[in-house]
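Methods — Computational structure assignment.
A single polypeptide chain was analysed. Its primary sequence is given first, followed by the predicted tertiary structure written as structure tokens.
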Amino acid sequence: MVESTLEGIKTEWTCSAVEWVKGNHWLKFCGMQLQWKDGSLMLGQPGFARELVERHGSVTGRSFPLPKVDQLQEPEEVIDPAGQRM
């Protein structure tokens, strides 16, 4: 089904060759990079991160602890969707 859909798209528009995510090779798509690793699809930007380090040098990481969120806390204000306008 995927291949027939791609063929239909190619009849309407000029497209580059189809690439598939496979192995340990990062595939770039829409500014993101995808890779299969241990049965999971990984999404990242290792090329962009590498470019930033080359351009600006390494930086020391910092830690910023997040405050604990009370999951039982009710929202401060309840908004009635019927009363909203677009």
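Note: The CA atoms of residues 1 and 7 lie 10 Å apart.
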